[in-house]
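Fold Annotation — chain and its backbone

Fields — amino acid sequence, structure tokens

___
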Amino acid sequence: MSMFNIFNVTGSAISSQAQRLNVVASNLANADAVAGPDGQAYKARQVVFETVPMGSQAAQGVKVQNVYESDVPNRKVFQPQHPSADAEGYVTHSNVNPVEEMVNMISASRSYQNNVEVMNTAKNLLLKTLQMGQ
């Protein structure tokens, strides 16, 4: 196994965490959204990761397997004066939980930072190895 494989693994992890951060940002941006003209409210999305074994010929490390919509029911709030209220006076809001999304964002950003640190450490080790030969 080559020392350069660490760059493949951390690079794939950084890319996956960046996609996770984008999904979290989209969820947070739509946290207060109500049902649109089609009657469907925004559904929170979650990222599912998949590990790629080291022995495979393809990319190694982590990849995004799927981005799925949460099956948590949307919030219904009784607001009969709201223009988006249904016949019973309820407005359908998104099912995004901002607290969970903030925790998810912190977790993703920490994972991203850790992988950047691993990549920098590996780079410094390779540079030190090259300097030993001088």
